[in-house]
Write a structure and sequence with these properties.
Beta-Lactamase; 16% strand; 420 residues; Heat Shock Protein 90; 12 strands; 10 helices; single chain; 3 domains
Amino acid sequence: MRRRITAAIVGVTAFILVAVGLPLAIVAQRSVVRSEVVKLQASAAQTLTEIARPIDTTQLAALRGEPDAPPPFAIYDTSGSVVFGEGPEPGDAAVDGAMAGSTTTTTAGAVVVATPITDPEENMLGVLRIATSLTAVNGRVREVWLVMAAVGLLAIGTSWLIADRLGRRLASPLVELADTARRTSIGGVIEQSPATGIAEIDQLHEALVDNSVRISDALVRERQFSADVSHQLRTPIAALRLKLEAADDDGHLDDSALADLTRLEDTVDHLLALARDAQPISAGCVLDEVVAHTVARWSAQVAAEHRSLTTLGSGGGVEASATAIGQVLDVLIDNAVRHGRGDIGLVVRTVAGGVALDVHDEGSLDPALTERQLFARHEGVNHGIGLALARSVTQAEGGRLMLTHRDPTTFSVVLLPRDR
């Protein structure tokens, strides 16, 4: 930001200097030339008063030899020929203009002033011509331009200093605010800092502080909620386990009840760890066993819908936990039962770099429903958080959950093999 501010201000300054300096340089050049013309006109007028009438070359030579002699000049007679000094032969345009009775100046190739020489009766006696080379004039023009360039460089340097200081003043609060935000842990509150005096930056700081407070409060409430849910679920589950174990001692309880209760406890523990981002590293499982247990759990419910649940293929060990895979399969089979149609199939197959588990039915998805909407929470129709939760659980185990076919509807869970 600081560099962009500095570059912008210096760039604008340079543009203004160029836009103004070029015309000003032309004006300065013309001003120097006009000044030289005025100087020569004054010298010509002074010299004209010192020339004797009639024209006497001896007197002219003596005049040139005086200590305060005028600049080099030339005298032309009425025919345009040089009678004294050095000048173009015949006379140039300035001399021709002076022959008409008026002082003339030209600046083509040299600065020239020519003025008529007359007697007291205003009779034309000749022409006085004084000239100076443009080389000297151009030298003075270059000096003026150098001064202008130095002033321009000084202006650019000054603008750079001002821009750099302004950039620091604007950027420093933002850099400090970014550093504070980076140092603040997730859920932490950004510290209030003194006002910078820049309204927009102070407003941004206030907004970030307010947002950090609200986010921190929301996270505290969410963590308290998770802890309360965990506590409130563990107590009745523990009591239920005691009752079921007591019933089991009497021999009046099916063995699957305790297995279901154990799975419920594992599910609560796994989801709580996932919510806290503290899921332990899984020891892995045998995929065929998880699939078999899942089919056993769902067969009765699927059959009640007059549909079938079949499996195909075989897979070895994977690095995901049995609890996680069971949750993902429960979500996918539940969706197939609720929103799909026809028979449901589970297909285990080997893919490059892992093992894929496909869950499909004979239904189809609405083409207008995007995959992003399908896996987003509370978007679209007839789905809430199930697929979003299943994808989160799969990703937490190092796998991927994706929609592979729309017709028939097929979801694929890709897991890493244990012996990779």
